[in-house]
From TrEMBL, chain B:
This is Glycoside hydrolase family 57 protein. Residues 10-288 form the Glycoside hydrolase family 57 N-terminal domain. GO terms for molecular function: hydrolase activity. The keyword Hydrolase applies. The lineage of its organism: Bacteria, Pseudomonadati, Bacteroidota, Cytophagia, Cytophagales. Pfam families: Glyco_hydro_57 (PF03065). Keywords: Carbohydrate metabolism, Hydrolase. Belongs to the glycosyl hydrolase 57 family. One of its GO terms (biological process) is carbohydrate metabolic process. InterPro entries: GH57_Enzymes, Glyco_hydro/deAcase_b/a-brl, Glyco_hydro_57_N.
């Protein structure tokens, strides 16, 4: 299995999903070799660290992170190429808020008779190069290991999966957690990413999509045959937080956006809805938690609308800070333009927060006990926010029914389906 | 008279709610109407084509040839007014049925409402309004009653009796009958009121199971169904089958053969020596009424639970109904017929039915009927309309007080209300 990011490092939706799925598959007695470009050693399952694999030598050994050694290395920097979630000059202003925009680069390290790549494993400027080199390493890993099926998560690892298939002749499953169409919108796609996605799906024996929404995109925009695509919805990992951090509430009515502040997540629709809500609910407060290339534009929009005293920006949050935000939130809004799945709403439900999601999301397919609106319909969104704020009985019902509902959305269920797909080969 | 004679009562429920407009919070105070006339017109027209007109034609044809065939209808006021507005042909065919003398109509609340839980006075007014409408449009009068979705309790039975009805329909379930047969008449424990239990097992064979291909009795023919009735013991004198009239052609499509089923079943039963058709007003004179039955808490024909949880089962439903209840006095004091009529249309049980958050098979049925994508949407929409109604009632009161003062600013400037 080839991944990219893995918790607790760089854990966006992809890493979270990989952890949930890998853990559940192991529990169902599936033997996994999980490869990531850069393992840190503190992950909850053993990983194969691609940065530790030596290439072009006869006796190369795959070392797991637990036995990593970095002696006698030489570093070679590779030129920058791509930044996946960021475009435009505005990014620079918010870079320091968003640790995902690391400026790390890929280094090639001489190691004994061969070389190995020291991957950043992030989304830095040398991403395209890393993706290509990751595939080289995958070929070596495929030669050195025995396995029955190859499973690659998202385009970052598709070339790796394809290479592993070429080397081993074993069937390839590519798992689509998000597409370039989701991230960039149809008119701003990076053609190179799009092509890697499509080639990966074409080379694959089977494609897993995290929702029907995503499957439809794969069929329509990538021209993949629907019979080849299986929908397996994500699960959510149970959390046990005994002591929720208590943060003083700024208001009785707090509405939260939490996610990357990028085109895909629809932050502008959140701000537009806030404007409409504030006309009627002057005491409501809005939190925009997260960062991204649209953040400066959002701050500007709020200032122009004279809403700065009611709309608060937190920058990028992690771990405990996210719990703090949930603890003060009365309703969570995910107005995504195109959301393949959307784990954050499920985490909100777990934290006891009522949820409003866009119909343009995978999570809308699996959750009944949330309010659903079209992302562009800011009036309907504002109406829903007001509904939840006004009626305690509504938020209570969403909270308790939602909690019950997500109990069935387990990774165990998802892993069971995927295990079945493995056995089809 | 043949003492072994058994009787069959067919009761069909005709109801269409006035479905609500999508009404956002921003529409509060805007003057936007509450009811989705386009949607309602479309649905009623579709139902007229698929169900009401062909089914009425079928019954008329059978009754014209064999007047001993008898049928009972209950048509809600909200359905009647929509037929009047969108499909007068349907009214005309019901009038023809009434003129045969073989068809009896039941009383109910005009608004197919939950008024029995509001106040005895409101309940009585809505029943009176229904009688007027039924008389005016169909030419029928009523002696038997059926409450919304067969909701019944001893207290409701008492009120119905006090309003002068001879009897009423109830769900023939164990909570009502304590395990006794539904194929008999019962009476209220203290009042002079006949209770007609619906045989829900046989009724649901038609209403729910007829088109279920996994049912071991599928396909059900009229002849086969009639044979089941023929096997009932002699001492079970009367079977009442009650179901939505929309079963024929809407819930169960024409293509399944449901009309042929109805035609065959009635024809076979007419020829039967054992059974005669009966309408409720003849029941008390032809049949014994020996035992009392009843229930303290609400019983109904809805959902697995057969109680009132389909409408008032969750917190949202109870909060919405409570909010409606609290507005009652203010709305009535407004003395504004348009507002009062709107207020009563908001009492229609369907609006609460859409807010249910049940699991399993019940959930499927609730969703089938709902114009909303979720119960939460149904709740929000209803509450927004209620907020608007409250605002309008408030403005009216304000204006009355201000008759001799300066013109009210509220009239020209519908400033948003602050919550």
């Amino acid at each position: 299995m080839f991944g990219w990011e893995f918790p607790p490092h760089l854990s966006g939706g992809l890493g979270t999903a990989c952890l949930g799925l890998a853990t559940a598959l192991k529990e169902q007695d599936v033997k996994l070799l999980f490869v990531v470009p850069k393992a840190h050693g503190d992950e909850s399952i053993p990983l194969i660290n691609a940065s530790g694999v030596t290439l072009a030598a006869d006796e190369t050994v795959v070392r797991t992170v637990h036995k990593r050694s970095d002696t006698g290395s030489r570093e070679i920097a590779v030129a920058a190429t791509i930044r996946p979630y960021a475009t435009g000059a505005a990014t620079r202003a918010v870079e320091h808020w968003h640790w995902q925009y690391a400026t790390e680069t890929l280094r090639t390290v001489k190691s004994g008779s061969g070389i190995r790549y020291s991957f950043s494993g992030g989304y830095g400027p040398s991403l395209m190069e890393e993706v290509a080199r990751y595939a080289d390493v995958a070929g070596a890993i495929a030669r050195q290991n025995n396995f029955d099926v190859i499973h690659a998560h998202d385009w970052l690892s598709f070339p790796a999966g394809v290479e592993a298939k070429n080397v081993s002749g074993k069937p390839l499953i590519v798992h689509v957690h998000a597409t370039e169409i989701d991230r960039a919108g149809e008119n701003n796609i990076d053609r190179r990413v799009f092509d890697i996605e499509r080639q990966g799906m074409q080379a694959a024996d089977l494609v897993i999509a995290v929702s029907q929404w995503t499957k439809d995109i794969l069929v329509r925009k990538y021209d993949i045959h629907p019979a080849k695509i299986h929908v397996v919805h994500n699960g959510v990992m149970p959390v046990q937080v005994d002591h929720w951090p208590v943060t003083p509430k700024i208001s009785e009515h707090v509405v939260t956006f939490l996610g990357r502040v990028t085109y895909q997540k629809g932050p502008l629709y959140f701000i537009e809805a806030a404007r409409k809500v504030l006309d009627y609910f002057p005491d409501a407060h809005f939190i925009m938690a997260g960062s991204g290339d649209l953040l400066p534009a959002m701050i500007d929009r709020v200032a122009r609308g004279k809403m700065s005293s009611r709309v608060h920006f937190t920058g990028f949050l992690r771990g405990k800070q996210i719990h703090q935000v949930w603890s003060v939130t009365d309703v969570y809004v995910m107005p995504s333009v195109s959301e393949p799945f959307g784990i954050t709403p499920l985490e909100a439900v777990q934290a006891g927060v009522p949820v409003i999601v866009s119909n343009q999301s995978g999570v809308a397919e699996v959750m009944d006990h949330v309010i659903k609106v079209d992302f562009w319909d800011t009036r309907a969104l504002a109406n829903a926010i007001i509904g939840v704020l006004r009626h305690k009985v509504l938020s209570d019902s969403l909270r308790s029914n939602g909690r019950k509902e997500i109990e069935a959305l387990t990774w165990k269920r998802a892993a069971g389906k995927i295990k079945q797909l493995y056995h089809e080969f | 008279m043949n003492s072994d004679q058994q009787y069959l009562n067919l009761y069909f429920q005709v109801h269409q709610p006035q479905r609500l407009n999508m009404f956002q919070f921003f529409d509060v105070g805007s003057g936007r109407g509450y009811f989705d006339d386009d949607l309602n017109g479309d649905i009623v027209s579709r139902l007229a084509e698929r169900c009401y007109l062909p089914a009425n034609a079928l019954l008329l044809r059978l009754i014209d040839r064999h007047p001993e065939i008898k049928v009972t209808f209950s048509i809600s006021g909200t359905a009647l007014e929509q037929f009047e507005r969108y499909t007068p042909k349907v009214l005309q065919s019901f009038r023809q049925l009434e003129e045969t003398g073989s068809v009896e109509f039941l009383g109910e609340t005009y608004y197919h409402s939950l008024a029995c839980f509001l106040s005895p006075k409101e309940f009585a007014l809505q029943i009176g309004r229904h009688q007027q409408k039924l008389g005016a449009l169909i030419g029928a009068s009523t002696t038997f009653f059926r409450n919304t979705e067969l909701i019944y309790s001893d207290a409701i039975g008492k009120q119905v009796s006090e309003l002068g009805f001879t009897g009423m329909y109830v769900e023939g379930c164990d909570r009502m009958l304590a395990g006794r047969t539904p194929n008999a008449l019962y009476r209220h424990a203290t009042e002079d009121l006949v209770l007609v239990p619906r045989n829900y097992r046989l009724s649901d064979d038609v209403a729910f199971r007829y088109s279920d291909k996994t049912w071991r009795e599928w396909p059900l023919t009229g002849k086969k169904f009639a044979s089941w009735l023929g096997r009932l013991p002699r001492h079970e004198k009367m079977v009442s089958l009650g179901m939505d009239y929309e079963t024929f052609g809407e819930h169960t499509p024409h293509s399944t053969g449901i009309f042929t089923f109805l035609d065959d079943f009635i024809t076979v039963m007419r020829k039967s020596r054992k059974f005669r058709f009966i309408n409720p007003s003849e029941m008390a004179s032809l049949l014994p009424v020996e035992h009392a039955a009843g229930a303290k808490e609400g019983v109904s024909w809805a959902d697995e639970a057969r109680d009132v949880s389909a409408w008032l089962g969750n917190a949202m439903q109870r909060d919405a109904f409570g909010s409606l209840e609290r507005l009652h006095d203010a709305v009535m004091a407004s003395d504004d017929v348009v507002l009062i009529d709107a207020y009563r249309h908001l009492q229609t049980s369907d609006h609460f039915y859409y807010m249910a958050t049940k699991d399993g098979a019940d959930d499927g049925v609730h969703r089938y009927f709902s114009p909303y994508t979720s119960p939460y949407e149904a709740f929000m929409n209803f509450m927004n309309i209620l907020a608007d109604l409250e605002l309008r009632v408030g403005r009216l009161r304000h204006r009355r007080h201000m008759v001799y003062a300066t013109p009210p600013a509220l009239e020209t400037d519908p400033a948003p209300i602050r919550w």
